[in-house]
C-alpha cells in the first residue's frame, strides 16, 4: 500500500470521529452561550425591579447585603461541619487500623519469640550434631529441608514485623496530620461562628429600623403589594426569557402526572395556608408557609432547572425552578442557597436551607407553585402533610 493510499484510508477512518468531536464542542459552546444569556437576562430583571419603584431603599439594599453575607457564612459553617465530621470519621478509621496492626504485630512477635527460644534451646551446633548422627542420606535431606523451612519462616516473620512497623508509622503520621487538620477546621469554624454572630447582630438592628418604617397598616399593605407585584413581574419576565432562550438541554416534562404524589420540600407544619387572609383582609397568601427550624434542609420537589437564585425584597433568598410546560416552584425566606441559575435538579436534591431572610421574624419556607405564571394551591399536589417522612427519589 502506497503512502498516499494509507493517508487517504486514515483520513476516511478518522473523519467521523473528528466531525463528532467538533459537533460535541459546538454543542457545549452553544449551551454555555444560552446559559450566559439567561444569567444576563436575570441580572437585567433585577435592575428592572428596582427601577419599577424608583431608587432602591437604602435599608433594603443594606438588608440584601447582610442577608446574602449571612447565607454565605451559614453555608461555610455547614461545609466546615461536614468536613469536621468526615475528619473525625477518618480518625476513627485510622484508630481501628492502628489497633488491628498492633494486634497483628503482637501475634507475629509471639510466634517469632517462641521459635527463637526453641532454636536457642537446641543450640547453634544442633544441626551439625544431628547430621553426624544420621546414617540415612534421605533422612539427612529431610532434616536439612526442615531446618531450611524454619529459617525461611523466621526470616518471613521478621520481614512481616518490619512491614507492620512501617504500616504503623504511616498510620501514626496520618493520625497526626488528621488531628492537625481537624484542629485547623475547628479554628476556622470558631472564626466563622463569630462572623455569623456579628452579621446576625447587624441584621437584627436592620429589622428594627425596617419595622419602624412600617408602623402604619397602610405602609405595611403597600409594602406587601409591592413585593407581590415584584414577584409577579419577575416570574412573567422569566417565562418570557425562557421562551426567547431555548433550553440548553432536553426539554423538561410536565409535573402534571405527579399531582398528589409530590413530597414536601421540607419537614414542618403549615403555618400559613394558601389563600390565607393577610393585611386586614386586603390580601391573600399566594403560597404556603411551612414553619420549620433554621438550617433545615430544603429539597427540590421535582426535576427541573434553576432559573433564579438571588435575593428579592419581601422573599429574601429566593430560588425558582422551572419544571417545564409552564410549571414553576418558588422557595423563599431561605438562609442559604446551594444551586445557581442553569443548574439541573431532580426530586430530592438539596437546594437550600430554611431561614428567615427577607426581613422575616420567624423561620420557615415560603413555597409557591405556579402554572403559566399564576399561583395555585400547592397542598393537593403533595402526598400527606409536610411532617411526613421523605420518600425516595
Please describe what this structure looks like:
It is a single chain. The chain contains five helices and twelve strands. The chain starts with a helix and ends in a 17-residue tail after the last strand. A hairpin with a 3-residue loop joins strand 6 and strand 7. It is of the alpha+beta class. The C terminus is likely disordered. The strands form two sheets. Strands 1, 4, 5, 6, 7, 8, 9, 10, 11 and 12 form a ten-stranded antiparallel beta sheet that branches. It has a two-stranded antiparallel sheet with strand order 2-3. The chain has two domains: 121 residues; 166 residues, Glucose Permease (Domain IIA) (Distorted Sandwich), CATH 2.70.70.10. The protein is elongated and about 100 Å long. Helix 1 packs antiparallel against helix 5.
CATH class of the largest domain: Mainly Beta
Largest beta sheet, briefly? 10 strands, antiparallel
CATH topology of the largest domain: Glucose Permease (Domain IIA)
The first-to-last residue Cα distance is: 58 Å
The number of strands is 12
Low-confidence stretches: 6-12, 388-393
